[in-house]
Amino acid sequence: MQTASKKVINGWAMYDWANSAYNLVITSTIFPAYFVGITSNGNSAGKHYAEFFGRKFVNTALIDYALSVVFLLVAFTSPILSSIADYRRNKKVYLRWFCFMGSAACVGLFFFYPGDIEFGIILFAIAALGFWSSLVFYNSYLPEIAAPEDQDRVSAKGFALGYIGSVLLQVICFLIILNPTILALVGMDPKDGTAGARLSFLLVGLWWFGFAQLTLRVLPLTSKQERKSKKNVLVNGFHELQLVWNQLKEMPVLRRFLLSFFLYSMGVQTVMLVAAGFGKKEIFPNPEDEPKLLITIILIQLVAIFGAIGMSRLSKKIGNMWVLILSVIFWLFICVAAYFVQNQTQFYILAGFVGLVMGGIQSMSRSTYSKLIPPTKDTTSFFSFYDVTEKIAIVIGIFTFGFMEELTGSMRNSIIALGGFFLMGLLALIYTKKVYDHHYATTHN
User: Fold this and answer.
1) Which of 69, 188, 427, 435 meets the CB 3.0–4.6 Å disulfide criterion with 183?
2) Domains (range + CATH), the chain
């Protein structure tokens, strides 16, 4: 196949630009800091609880549990929806609706005031559901619009644009929070300590929805005649899943790669989801230090741009598998260092290393999987397995992190579990590479 036109490639990559603002502002920086801040008032030192429908949780653990539920829901529903989308050839419709769901929930967070914990957590969960559900349909376009030799480059371009776009909006939100006079210009009370954060949530929703229109306008949509279903679409969805599963059983390299991806994703995704909460509690507990934390997260995103592009180029020299193995080794050392980090300077250095491998491992994982799947029109069904693997990994990883914190009273102890995930992922990747090398040698002799 030939790679699609530059217009289509750029349009596809723009969805990373659009939705990554959610991942940075809502998941990683301002929302966690805001939530920890409004649930720390009145608690004794080191004990920060939030009440959710009458039950008390450690505040950061409550966010972890909410995300775990979302990822579990995505894991169970995305295979059905993606199979239906493949059967009816209308995955663009699902991409549009989940984009609308997530962005609308972010807009709704503008009305999340202290004391409305249930309201905030529910909208936070809906936004996460929209974001992660849309990604399976978005990712599945990659093998359709890019030839195998271009998929590393196109995947990296998406992540790079995502980091640039998210950092740009993060800086805008950062300026709003630090400069209350901007709030007065839009008719908000500059003395309202929550106004800056809540306005940031609103901007994320508008940014996500607005820029996503550029993607939705250029991505191909199959004709109505081809999308017309002749069978019960739900039954056929399960049938398509069975066909994909049968193919996976005959593809040892792809099957083992999914196992490796599952293991190291428990660590990678959890680190990215809990980094802001860890920094807020362990390194930047004082309110006056919060800007330093936000700046650090921004720097992580900027470094990640170079990491994604650099690993894409490195893969041309040493291959995807070696790049992934080296990345997981890097992550393992990051976990060890994070357990012992004590001051802000050490945190800054550690954050730089996180950024270096954060973008690269996500980009390379997506493009490697895209290369390993067989030529097929049912790319959404194949990427649903990729998506389910990632989501179940996140459920285990983030639930373990939150549970360990509640059990031991320290987020540092949770890092030990993440190190174990990375170690298992490394061993699985090494085994996968051996199978891959053997398979490649056999099929090319």
Assistant:
1) 188
2) 6-43+51-218+234-443 (1.20.1250.20)
